Amino acid sequence: MNMTGMTTPGPFAVTMLEYERRLEHALSMGGAAKLERRRAAGWLNARERIAYLCDPGTFIESGLFGTSAVPADSGKSPADGKIAGFGKIGGRETALVVNDFTVMGASSAATNGRKIAHMKRVATQRGLPMVFLGESSGARMPDTMGARGMGSLLGNDGTQYQRTRETPWASATLGMSYGSSSWYAALSEFSVIRKGSVLAVSSPLLASLAIREEVDPEALGGWRLHAEVTGLVDAVADTDEEALDLVRRFLDYMPSHHNEAPPVRPVPPGSGDAMCDILSLLPATRTQVYDVRRIIRAIVDRESFFELKARFGKVGVTGLARLDGRTVGMIATNPLVKGGALDTDACEKITSFLVLCDSFNIPIVMLVDTPGFVIGTDAERKRAPGKIMNFMNALSLVTVPKLSIILRKSYGQAYLNMGGGRNSDEVAAWPTAEVSFMDPQFAVKVVHGLDRGQPGFDEAFAQMGRDSEVWDMAAIGAVQAVIRPEETREYLIRMLDVHRLRLTNGVGQHLMRAWPTSF
């Protein structure tokens, strides 16, 4: 007791009081005023985003007591602006890095850089998916200014931007995202952006200074740009919650790491019920367009089709789905857009998806109805030969099962790119399929010099059409099966079972694991 009769706290009590004080500060983020402004705008704060995404009570933080390495800023940098830790999502352990914009704009600095490096290292070594929730102002200044700043902060991790796909990465852009949060979005297998967010190399202010004119944030890196023009994002959300739901859904199709097969889920009631009428989705006229996504949804497990990059390269359709409860990658050409003729954007999109599927042991199903590739001067300026060969190279490097179904047209080089020949493990066709070097109408012009309406055109066209029917291909074994359309779902389920990677427990060779995530 002291002279006043009061009990003096013991050393342990003083230590615990200091712990509680520091804990309260670490959890305070940017303070009540900043948090309230976010709440008024309808945005979740960083810790609310973690609570929403992770299974209740499972998040354990790493680096909670980290602060700025600059002593003058240590008191105003709780968790150094980036919250890191481990939480379960759908029952599976996951590593998370979540930017807290209320603390120094979630700017990148020495301490939070170490936190990110630690999370990546643990995720890679222990086989955990990674989630990045991006919202940041870029590199912290003046910390990074000068030779010392550059050398100490930006040059101390040689693996910072290395992707060799040991585990799947998912990213959500949930606000103004510049610098490292943009990098991690571009490096991720799945990237979603919330409307109103901006994903760019640097802020509009810095861009304006560089080019000496006003820069509109939406034009610089808004959701329309990346969903429709660059293809850097896979999905668009209206709210934080919707974006986080999409991250959760993506991860549910994926294995935790590249050395295991994807999870198997129960088959929803009603799956396959639409198969009896599937032929009605294909127009009777060969030149009439339709939306191939309706056919995909009829074939796969009910409500399991999860389309990726729906607004980009729309001639090509890519998405994850399930067949008999097992994850598959669906690739299709869509006659609703450009008659199904593949352009360079679609080639990029499909190539990226092939890499995703092969890296994480997801079998591939291709539905084919294409007159070939878009040709002409614009296509050549967009490097069409290179894009087509990237696509072809990726397909030839795939080591997971590949099944191809020719629904209607399959012409020219696109026949090979969409799995024809020996570029799939099994090639099947509907009786409606037609395969040739080019559309019979163009072939008549090239061979006979005749246009539609000229004498002799109809006879030559009919002959070219007969030569394109699937039966000649089936006769020489160039397709392994001609199937009734209503049997497609059961055929695919059966063939996926036949071609399951039993010798490696469902794991492929991952020949493209270091392929760029964007190119």
Provide a brief overview of the structure.
This protein has helices at 11-27, 32-41, 46-53, 110-126, 146-153, 180-187, 204-211, 217-221, 223-230, 240-253, 292-299, 344-359, 377-381, 384-397, 413-417, 440-448, 457-468, 470-475, 488-498; strands spanning 60-62, 82-89, 92-99, 130-137, 169-178, 190-194, 198-200, 235-237, 306-308, 316-323, 326-333, 364-370, 402-411, 426-429, 434-436, 481-482. The chain is α/β, with parallel strands linked by helices. Strand 4 (130-137), helix 5 (146-153) and strand 5 (169-178) form a beta-alpha-beta unit.
Q: Output mean pLDDT.
A: 88
Range of helix content: 25-40%
Shape call: elongated
Beta-strand residue fraction: 15-25%
Structural class: alpha/beta
- Report the oligomer: single chain
Main beta sheet strand tally, sense and closure: 8 strands, mixed
Distance between the termini: 72 Å
- Total number of helices: 19
Cα-atom radius of gyration: 27 Å
Uncertain regions spanning at least 5 consecutive residues? 443-448
Keywords:
eight-stranded mixed beta sheet, 519 residues, alpha/beta, 19 helices
